């Protein structure tokens, strides 16, 4: 099993967090649980089809080429057979800046790539599938993003600055503080943020805090839970557990155990 990340070109840093390739075999079946992480994505599956479920819903087959927005709680991927997935991890407002899409339609959803105006889904999927190497697949993804970069830059606004500020604070910041920092009204911030990201700035901050928190827990062998409580602004450990159960459907200790195993497959 191999999951490898690749850095984007400098011109794409305001929009692309990273690219990734995930390959392996799940002959006996495998379930992978993922918490919300504040990013959106464009994903191409060039191997066996797989399913995904969320909120205890019945698993559904994932499109072979799809776009997704914010996830508000954890989801589970159910894989069987050969795994071959290439994807673009996008900053929260990138899909809006690139394609002008209504982000609320992509919350908790994996929608066929044809949802994005002007993208030739079949041609792109075939190009990714037929590449013989990681480098070739990443090149296809990067060229796609670069072709929209100039237009996307013209769509950057103060809301992108708000996202950057929330990210810099690791999500540990109030909506009032963000609005004050940028000298805009809370109402304007909430309206435009929902348009560009798909969720409110308050909820995005919670997702961002949880994403940073869960990533730290997954990558450290020993955890001082009281230190976590203080660092991420929780009232107490009960508050921390409540947040974990809402976003991830498991307590922090269980999450730490499960994801310690998964992180060994990741190459930066």
From TrEMBL:
Q: Specify the HTH araC/xylS-type domain's residue ranges.
A: 153-258
Q: Which InterPro entries match?
A: AraC_XylS_family_regulators, DUF6597, HTH_AraC
Entry keywords, A to Z: DNA-binding, Transcription, Transcription regulation
Q: Which SMART domains match?
A: HTH_ARAC
Q: Does the keyword Protein biosynthesis apply?
A: no
Keyword Isomerase applies: no
Q: Which residues cross the membrane?
A: none
Q: Which GO terms describe its molecular function?
A: DNA-binding transcription factor activity; sequence-specific DNA binding
What Pfam families is this protein classified in?
DUF6597, HTH_18
Please give the name of this protein: AraC family transcriptional regulator
């Amino acid at each position: 099993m191999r999951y490898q990340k690749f850095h984007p070109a400098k011109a794409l840093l305001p929009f692309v967090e990273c690219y990734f390739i995930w390959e392996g075999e799940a002959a006996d079946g495998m379930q992978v649980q993922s918490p919300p992480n504040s990013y959106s994505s464009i994903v191409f599956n060039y191997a066996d089809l797989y399913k995904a479920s969320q909120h205890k819903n019945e698993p559904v087959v994932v499109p072979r080429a799809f776009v997704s927005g914010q996830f508000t709680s954890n989801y589970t991927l159910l894989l069987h057979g050969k795994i071959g997935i290439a994807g673009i991890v996008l900053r929260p407002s990138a899909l809006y800046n690139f394609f002008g899409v209504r982000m609320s339609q992509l919350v908790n959803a994996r929608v066929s790539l044809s949802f994005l105006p002007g993208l030739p889904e079949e041609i792109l999927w075939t190009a990714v599938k037929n590449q013989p190497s990681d480098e070739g697949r990443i090149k296809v993804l990067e060229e796609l993003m670069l072709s929209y970069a100039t237009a996307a830059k013209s769509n950057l606004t103060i809301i992108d600055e708000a996202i950057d500020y929330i990210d810099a604070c690791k999500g540990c910041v109030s909506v009032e503080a963000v609005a004050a920092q940028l000298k805009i009204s809370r109402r304007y911030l909430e309206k435009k943020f929902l348009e560009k990201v798909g969720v409110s700035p308050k909820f995005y901050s919670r997702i961002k805090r949880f994403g940073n928190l869960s990533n730290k827990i997954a990558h450290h062998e020993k955890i001082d839970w009281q230190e976590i409580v203080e660092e991420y602004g929780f009232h107490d450990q009960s508050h921390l557990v409540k947040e974990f159960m809402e976003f991830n459907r498991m307590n922090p200790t269980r999450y730490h155990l499960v994801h310690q195993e998964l992180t060994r497959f990741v190459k930066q």
